[in-house]
Please model this.
Amino acid sequence: MDHFLYRDGHLYAEDVSVAEIAATVGTPFYVYSTATLERHFRLFDEALDGMDHLVCYAMKAASNQAILKTLAALGAGMDVVSGGEYARAKAAGVPGERIVFSGVGKTRDEIHAALSGGIRQFNVESEPEMAVINEVALELGVVAPITVRVNPDVDAKTHAKIATGKSENKFGIPIARAREVYAHAATLPGLKVIGIDVHIGSQLTQLEPFRLAYDKVAELTEQLRADGHEISRLDLGGGLGIPYERSNDAPPLPTEYGALVKETLGHLGCEIEIEPGRLIAGNAGLMISKTIYVKSGEDRDFLIVDGAMNDLIRPAMYEAHHDIVPVVEPAPGVEKTSYDVVGPVCETGDTFAKERIMAPVNAGDLVAFRSAGAYGAVMASEYNTRPLIPEVLVNGDQFAVIRRRPTFDEMINRDTIPEWL
Ligand SMILES: *Cc1c(COP(=O)(O)O)cnc(C)c1O
Model:
């Protein structure tokens, strides 16, 4: 459920008219709903009630500081995957002890920054990385808390580009080698092993892959404890999918996911960490775009909108579906038509939807791309020298621009011309 609903025929974000925001900030733009972000965070938090736990929002999904502050105020930790995200989380006021550092290629500088600024734990992805974390910790005279990310060789049954838990993927260490790697970690004085990490992919629409992975983690926990390691924290990653197509079957709910976690891992007495990104932010954001032209082609009509693949790359990158709805609610019973919905960028890949059946749209009409809150603004680029589009946060009847649109001058002046030109 989200807080983007029609009221008297106009789309609202909570208590603010989307058309009013468009009139103020111009199109295209992203708009997020505070109430939806909060609701999604609480769903996860409550799903793990009764277990010692921390929900660490995977901020790569949508990393504007206003979003981070909204979630941190509810007690969220953050899962970061780069030095930039670490700095951003700190800038948003998140304390180091609530920041988890994931990612397959943490550099020495990033490790140094996190150890100096405070970190809850590193999720270590390889032995060479483990060696560097140990070295940097010893240089700084601190002990780095770590988990080791294991790759359970489980098919997440999701899009190939976002499956991470198969042995052919670059992530983690093979679970079969885990005992050996933990034994080595225990000999490194700059490290303190505190648990196990696993993350098998994103946009999972079934619980079964999670069950397979968590059963393996439970077994490993007992083996490692028997080997003499202290395993007190299990980081279970993110990955629960969201319903991009309202007409389709819904993915499992956080409550069902929480019940699975309790069932598979509850008996171990570990602190549970989860790192949801998409489920918290995805349906908490829309991309709003204006129709520039309706163009009649040979065998189809094109809706040419002012948003493009550089603003929302998911359709081009993952063949992703986004529901597209008009901001002015169509009259009941209006006859639907079919459009290819495209942006202005000079690539055929700049296509949001093919043969989409929807109510007729005219030039100048606003349309909303639903479920655009996660992996939307954060993956945007300035391709075609198109400015990064603004982000707006709504809270009840208020809204604020939380990242403004840069001017052409700001964009162009980032280039520096060598003196020989
Ligand atoms: C991307 C990622 C997540 C978040 O995945 P979602 O599908 O957005 O929930 C969590 N943990 C790690 C390590 C990730 O790489």
